[in-house]
């Protein structure tokens, strides 16, 4: 009985670590493959570790493909989407939370109803709209449909609602304009929420596949997730290169996650409503 | 600025609650940017989808009004029902397994003393990857001639290409990719259960599995329903990983609702009929959400 109490936690902890290792093994295997030569990658007797490790596959991928261009496209579009989403949502949420105006409830209801409509159901009319606006294969075409986030408004509004009413009222009495109150009091107070919404928006925009897939056809306009699907066709059965591409494609988000781990997990919890 | 928010001002704060003359105007200015984007890229496309579903349109040209003809066609469309069945099968293979795996991971990580954040990161990491990185990784691992699964087991199964294995394999890949998020939600739930609750339970003589059965599980139930809800909705929306891994094959056995809509619109260029599928897709999602909302509110 007493012995069981000592052994069981050790076994459980060991099993957890082992499972964790197995869980990231596909990522490690991709990195190991990318560092091999093509011959080692497809050798009949399995080569576990690259010998010697070489960056040839990475070099080839960067030199031959559109990868640098895709990085640029992803960076520009994701940053713009994030900044615009956060700005639009903060402004609208402030109005909903702190101002009284006519039609407020109807508008709020209209926005929250938007949470129910799946983006996927809008692909055809959105494509037609962008086609009519000549925005196919443009940054504007990639960005515009992604800046509408009713959930961001919802999260901001909940946070603004929790700020004591007296703060707003006192600032009004002091003669501060609503713009000044938002910019000088509410925005500085909402650091964590800004980070949360910003990070989740950025990761979602960076990883978005479906919309760029619909709206871009030319390889030069593709974002990273979309571009990655093109390289296999180009290289045929070059597995080390394919894995180098996958590693380079995943690297920015993996690094961002490892650096901002707590911010990222808190961001996702905030957006789900589990953390304020 | 913050200095001016002094206590003395609070005395007159009642007056300040009145909307000022300019409040309506300020509110309009603050709402205008979002409202404009929302109307243009959300409300308009929503109404447009319904309108297009009543026409015989191509992908880019609006065709004649045909009333409910598309909907009648949809009801008798074997391909649509097959896609719906495939979507349901995928949901069956993922919703409950991914919830259970997430729960087990959370329990395992939560009880760790050392390196908790590290192990949590290992499980969460796949979730931040773009879908195409995930599909490239698994195509390599499961490659029937050169993949590591072939090398270790000698299996020559073409995992994504055979009727029996295609759907379950996509399900496994999807669980690997997304379960870290469920784990995160469960860990948040576990952290909200106070130490006192556990102490009281242990004073009452609860041990091991009893603690889980009578304390942890009931207190985690709200999170569990949240996870199940999110999972069901997201599995109904599955498209990309399926499209990249199987392309809907073999023999359309993994073609799901969204791919049927995509094929109809962008391959067959039937924008009108594809919009009908989109409206049906939206109604199914809405129905599921409403049923779940009703079930959840009855529990409270």
UniProtKB/TrEMBL annotation, chain A:
Task: List the PROSITE patterns.
Answer: ABC_TM1
A single GO BP:
transmembrane transport
Q: Which Gene3D superfamilies match?
A: MetI-like
Q: Which UniProt keywords apply?
A: Cell membrane, Membrane, Transmembrane, Transmembrane helix, Transport
A cellular component annotation (GO) from this entry? plasma membrane
Give the residue spans that cross the bilayer: 7-32, 70-94, 106-127, 139-160, 181-203, 240-260
Q: Give the superkingdom in one word.
A: Bacteria
**Topology versus the membrane, per the UniProt entry?**
Multi-pass membrane protein
What coarse category fits the chief subcellular location reported for this protein?
membrane
Localization annotation: Cell membrane
One short Pfam family name for this protein?
A: BPD_transp_1
Which InterPro entries does its entry note? MetI-like, MetI-like_sf
> Could you tell me which residue ranges the ABC transmembrane type-1 domain spans?
71-260
Q: What family classification does the UniProt entry report for this protein?
A: Belongs to the binding-protein-dependent transport system permease family.
Q: What is this protein called?
A: Carbohydrate ABC transporter membrane protein 2 (CUT1 family)
Q: Which organism is it from?
A: Deinococcus yavapaiensis KR-236
From TrEMBL, chain B:
Give the ABC transmembrane type-1 domain ranges. Answer: 84-292
Q: Which Pfam families does the record associate with it?
A: BPD_transp_1 (PF00528)
Classification via Gene3D superfamilies: MetI-like
Which GO biological process categories is it annotated with? Answer: transmembrane transport
Q: Which UniProt keywords apply?
A: Cell membrane, Membrane, Transmembrane, Transmembrane helix, Transport
Annotated membrane topology: Multi-pass membrane protein
The organism's superkingdom is given as Bacteria
Q: Where found in the cell? A: Cell membrane
GO CC, one annotated term: plasma membrane
Q: Which InterPro entries does the record match to this protein?
A: ABC_transporter_permease, MetI-like, MetI-like_sf
Provide the transmembrane region boundaries: 23-44, 89-109, 121-141, 166-190, 211-233, 273-296
Record-stated family: Belongs to the binding-protein-dependent transport system permease family.
User: What protein name does the entry list?
Assistant: Carbohydrate ABC transporter membrane protein 1 (CUT1 family)
Origin organism of this chain?
A: Deinococcus yavapaiensis KR-236
Per the UniProt record, the lineage of the source organism begins with: Bacteria, Thermotogati, Deinococcota, Deinococci, Deinococcales
């Amino acid at each position: 009985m007493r012995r069981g109490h000592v052994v069981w936690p050790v076994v459980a902890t060991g099993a957890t670590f082992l499972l964790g290792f197995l869980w990231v093994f596909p990522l490690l295997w991709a990195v190991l493959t990318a560092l091999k030569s093509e011959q080692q990658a497809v050798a009949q007797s399995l080569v576990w570790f690259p010998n010697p490790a070489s960056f040839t596959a990475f070099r080839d991928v960067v030199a031959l493909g559109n990868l640098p261009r895709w990085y640029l496209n992803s960076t520009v579009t994701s940053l713009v989407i994030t900044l615009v989403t956060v700005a639009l949502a903060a402004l609208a949420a402030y109005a909903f939370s702190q101002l009284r105006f006519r039609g407020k409830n109807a508008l709020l209801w209209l926005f929250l109803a938007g949470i129910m409509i799946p983006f996927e159901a809008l692909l055809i009319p959105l494509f037609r709209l962008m086609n009519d606006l000549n925005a196919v294969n443009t940054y504007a075409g990639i960005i515009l449909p992604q800046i509408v986030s009713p959930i961001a408004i919802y999260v901001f509004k909940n946070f603004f609602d929790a700020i004591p009413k007296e703060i707003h009222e006192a600032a009004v009495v002091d003669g501060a304009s609503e713009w000044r109150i938002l910019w000088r009091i509410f925005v500085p107070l909402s650091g964590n929420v800004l980070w949360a919404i910003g990070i989740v928006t950025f990761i979602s925009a960076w990883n978005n596949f479906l919309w760029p897939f619909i709206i871009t056809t030319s390889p030069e306009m593709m974002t990273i997730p979309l571009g990655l699907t093109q390289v296999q066709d180009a290289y045929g059965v070059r597995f080390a290169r394919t894995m180098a591409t996958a590693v380079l494609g995943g690297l920015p988000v993996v690094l961002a996650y490892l650096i901002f781990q707590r911010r990222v997990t808190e961001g996702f919890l905030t957006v789900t409503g589990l953390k304020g | 600025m913050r200095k001016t928010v002094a206590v003395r001002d609070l005395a007159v704060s009642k007056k300040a609650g009145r909307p000022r003359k300019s409040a309506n105007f300020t509110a309009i200015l603050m709402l205008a940017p979002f409202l404009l984007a929302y109307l243009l890229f959300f409300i308009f496309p929503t109404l447009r989808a319904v309108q297009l579903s009543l026409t015989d349109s191509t992908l880019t040209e609006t065709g004649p009004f045909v009333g409910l003809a598309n909907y009648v066609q949809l009801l008798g469309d074997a391909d649509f029902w097959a896609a719906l069945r495939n979507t349901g099968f995928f949901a069956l293979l993922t919703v409950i397994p991914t919830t259970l795996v997430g729960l087990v991971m959370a329990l395992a990580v939560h009880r760790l003393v050392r390196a908790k954040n590290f192990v949590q990161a290992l499980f969460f990491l796949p979730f931040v990857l773009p879908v195409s990185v995930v599909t490239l990784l698994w195509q390599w691992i499961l490659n029937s001639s050169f993949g590591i699964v072939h090398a270790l087991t000698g299996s020559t199964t073409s995992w994504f290409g055979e009727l029996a294995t295609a759907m379950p394999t996509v399900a496994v890949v999807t669980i690997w990719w997304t379960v870290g998020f469920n784990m995160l939600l469960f860990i948040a739930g576990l952290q909200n259960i106070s130490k006192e609750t556990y102490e009281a339970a242990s004073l009452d003589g609860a041990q091991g599995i009893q603690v889980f059965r009578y304390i942890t599980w009931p207190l985690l139930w709200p999170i569990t329903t949240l996870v199940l809800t999110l999972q069901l909705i997201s599995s109904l929306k599955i498209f990309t990983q399926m499209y990249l891994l199987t392309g809907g094959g073999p023999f359309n056995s993994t073609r799901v609702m969204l791919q049927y809509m995509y094929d109809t619109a962008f391959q067959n260029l039937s924008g009108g009929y594809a919009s009908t599928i989109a409206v049906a897709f939206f109604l199914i999602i809405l129905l599921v959400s409403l049923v779940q909302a009703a079930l959840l509110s009855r529990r409270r």
